[in-house]
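Summary for the lay section of the report: proteins are chains of building blocks that fold into shapes. Here we show the chain for Vitamin K epoxide reductase and then a coded description of the shape we predicted for it.
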Amino acid sequence: MAFRRRWLTLVVLVTLFGISPAFAQTPVAHAVLFYSPTCPHCHVVLNDVLPPLQARYGSQLHILTIDVSTPAGQSLYSAALQTFAVPAYRQGVPALFFGQTHLVGSDEIPARLPGLIEQALAAGGNAWPAIPGIEPLTATFESGAAPVAPSASSPFSRDPVANTLALLVLTGMAIAFFVAVTRLRWPFDRPLSVTRSRWIPVLAAVGVVLAGYLAVVELNQQRAVCGPVGDCNAVHQSQYARFLGVPVGLIGLVGYLAIIVAWLLERFAHLRLARQALVAMALTGTLFSLYLTFLEPFVIGATCIWCLLSAITMTALLWVNAPPVPQHVARGRRSLSPS
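The coded shape description reads as follows.
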């Protein structure tokens, strides 16, 4: 009799409340990761952090990845920043949105994401982040079909205004470099006028400020303060922000400081070697700046105004160190340029 009463009670409860399908479903954690293909920290997250988590949680972990180098991806990323009120100092990729939580960087994401996943699954799962315009991508993801990738674009077309500016600077630098080389005479010890000599420490000091700021940004992985044109942070987060493992900004800072030291030695100690070093460093620095400036519009697809200003400064230093050759000297001495 007691057994029959319990059975009837169970039937009544099922009839009144039903069995929600949600109880039969497996909880799922949802997240959205924004990345850039030229960002080394993004590749750390994509290749080293996410695969072990995906292998561990399987179908219980859904992470939608979005490329910010495409116009559609950049638009969604901007919408996410605005929706979640992300402060400027925390803007950058890799950026992961999990529920109401925003994680950034290859250190914070692996440190906090596993705990967030566990909490979400224990609570029965979570919804996709409320990013305006992301619904078609999440619906495609949930259906099991491959998300439709935004149309591919050439690096230059990702930011035509800023990249056109970089192209103009690159052209001007190339012309200035060619003219300067035709003026230089071995062994690079031709004295400068007082006016030209005084410009060297001024330009080098400007370079120290520019390169010093870039070095701080790169070493501390901070967001650079950019103007209305360009995307400095996309450049600094690319694999080309380091040369032989050393931040490019730090290389520039050391170079400008070395130019100041060489100028002081040439000016006050009258060392011929210091004068030669000034020309050699200006030549090398301008060549390196030409290389970096070329990468921005044609490889990275983003332009850094700070980098352009530094490149212009280094080119100006070369120009100052290569005065026009007097006519009587031009007839009697050999140029660096092929005859």
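Put simply, here is one thing we learned. The two ends are 114 Å apart (CA to CA).
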